[in-house]
Amino acid sequence: MNFAAIDWVIVVLYLAGSLGIGILGKRFVGDLTHFLVAGRELGVYVGIATLAATEIGTITYMYFAELGYKAGFAAFAAAMISGTVMIIVGRTGLVVSRFRDLKLMTVPEYFEVKYSRGLRILTGVLVAVGGILNMGIFLKIEGQFLTVVTGIDSRYLVLVMTIILLLELVYTVLGGMVSVVITDFMQYILLSVATILVTIYTVYYAGFGNIVDKVTRVLGPGGFSPVENPRFGWTFLIWQVLLWFSVSTCWQTTAMRMFSTNSPVTAKKVMTWTGVIFLGRGMLPMLWGMCALVMFGTGPLDKEGIPTPIVNGHAIEPIAAMPALLAQILGPGVRGIVVAGMLAATMSVNSSYLLGWSSVISQDIVIPMRAVLGKPELSSKRQILINRIANVFVSLFVMFWGLYYELPGAVYLYLGITGTIFLSGAFVSVIGGLYWRRANVTGGYAAMLLGGIGSIVPYFFLKWSENITGFTAFGLAATGLVVGSLVGKREAAPAPTAVVT
Amino acid sequence: MEVWKLFWTVSLLVSGSAFAVITIVVILKGGRDMRAMLRGLKAHHDDNRTH
To answer: What pLDDT does residue A496 have?
Structure first.
């Protein structure tokens, strides 16, 4: 066991505090708007904190550290693209300010505003499936981090992760977005402090000069140039640009923060400044991965020429190298703060994702299906109840999927592909819907279906690389929207008042 | 390769510093935002109850 008594005290205090503050949020929930978009009351600073906390989790640190270990400084390109794209979206207001103007609560809701109820339901299904599959691996990776850093016996891993999931579930179910935002603020502070602490420790121990030397020796020019790195290249860079434009605008958990801001101007500011944070969100953990390469990268080379990490004479997976490094270099007290910070990161992401995907299930699948079947409209309280049930369902799925699913390759790329299943079609349809008058229902269906097929078939059946698959999915979705809209019948969009819930 | 090394070193310094500075600003100014949000929510909540 690597944890001292002081570390346990810090972690338990944090967990109890998080739960208590989260439960307090329930007092402020009056109706569905409060539950899903915090009454659209978010200001700039809390908006930045909650958006950053939502998209910075232990999973983020793990996959970026893995990418840094395997690709060196060239991996920074992914961080640079994500941050720069968000800054561009924030500065221009692309999609986000129009979305905020429409007072939406979920992304698929837009599809009914612009296209049709049927397309909203189809998009809801694709968003929920892709999003939940994406979230499905979180617990496993986060558990791996906790086991290595704390030294908890892996037999107790399932129990530990179940307890953490239950804590998140309790306050998310009770207080919805209000609880999530309040806890996110506290969690953002903790995770940022942990990030800065870990960066100082790891660079101090590995030495920046040693990092540059090791990356040069192991990876050569490919360790610095994303164009020359065989893992990346131009196809990766272009896919990442497309992916990040779509994530910044159409990813449900990100979009919910934009919907929750108190004005379109605030939405733009939140996106811009969080974009700046995203540069560090990527680069800092990648640097930790490179530090782990310096300290442990002494084993035999794998098929990609990357040395296997060796810790205390045992070979481990590259993704476990960063937590193994933290377990070795952090002292008592600091280790507790860092683990509490990582738990904060974990809980803020998981609670937001639980709320995000369950809101899509309730608002974009269950409730529109009831309307299609001619059932009467539900009260705000009943809609919240359906959302809470969906929350529990998503949690159960995530727990079992995380336990039994074996990851095929690099985590970052798996997450990118599962996101692309719906993001390619959704992004293209949203851009077309907002900025091209000719876009219609036929084009929307074609974009969603071709984007989904273009992600699933090449990656899972034809075994194409993630880069080419992502590129293909966006290309097919765009072709589907344009050809479908030109071929399909031109129809008037439904009246927004009839559908905005 | 030297150009890339320099570029990534500068990018890392700028990004790391910006991360730290924004964190401090958000911590200092976020409390006021949070209070305003909760006040707004409470007002709506009370309003809903009276209607």
So the answer is: 46
In this structure, are residues A327 and A151 in contact, taking their beta carbons and an 8 Å threshold? Answer: yes
Q: Which token pair is A303?
A: 């098929």
Q: Cα torsion for A41, A42, A43, A49, to the nearest 10°?
A: 160
* Helix H or strand E segment including B34: helix B2-50
Task: Provide, as residue numbers in chain A, all residues whose Cβ is less than 8 Å from the Cβ of B38.
Answer: 28
With H, G, I as helix, E, B as strand and everything else as coil, classify residue A116.
coil
Cβ distance A76 to B11 less than 8 Å, yes or no, reads: yes
* Cβ contact, residue pair A45, B26, below 8 Å: yes
Q: Are A202 and A325 in contact (CB under 8 A)?
A: yes
Per-residue pLDDT reduced to its tens digit, B4-43? 999 999 999 999 999 999 999 999 999 999 999 999 988 8
Write out chain B residues lying below 8 Å of A345, CB-based. none
Distance of alpha carbon A28 from alpha carbon A435, whole angstroms: 37
Q: What is the DSSP letter of A298?
A: -
pLDDT, tens only, A8-42: 888 889 888 888 888 888 888 888 889 899 889 99
**Separation between Cα atoms, residue A66 and residue A288, nearest integer Å:** 9
Structural contact between residues A471 and A437, judged by C-beta atoms closer than 8 angstroms: no
Q: Which residues contact A47 (CB under 8 A, 6 or more apart)?
A: A257, A260, A261, A266, A267, A269, A270, B33
Q: Give the count of Cβ contacts less than 8 A between chain A and B.
A: 113
* 3 state SS for A228-247: CCCCCCHHHHHHHHHHHHHH
User: How wide is the angle at C-alpha A240 spanned by C-alphas A57 and A190, nearest 5°?
Assistant: 15
**Residues, chain A:** 501
**A311 has which bridge partners?**
A314
Say how far apart CA A146 and CA A159 lie, in whole Å: 12
Whether the CB of B50 is below 8 Å from some CB of chain A: the reply is: no
- Radius of gyration of the CA atoms of chain B, in A: 21
CB A271 within 8 A of CB A86: yes
pLDDT for res A31:
87
DSSP letter string over A242-294?
HHHHHHHHH-HHHHHHHHHBSSHHHHHHHHHHHHHHHHHHHHHHHHHHHHHHH
The total of other beta-carbon atoms located within 10 Å of residue A404's CB is 8
Of the candidates A448, A395, A390, the residue with the CA atom closest to the CA atom of residue A423: A448
Say if CB A425 and CB A452 are below 8 A apart.
Answer: yes
How many Å apart are CA A144 and CA A146, to the nearest integer? 6
By CA distance, what is B50's nearest residue in A? Answer: A30
Q: What residue has token string 């939406």? A: A104
Cα A440 to Cα A437: distance, rounded to the nearest angstrom: 8
ipTM over 0.90: yes
In the structure encoding, which two tokens stand for residue A193, read together? 């402090």
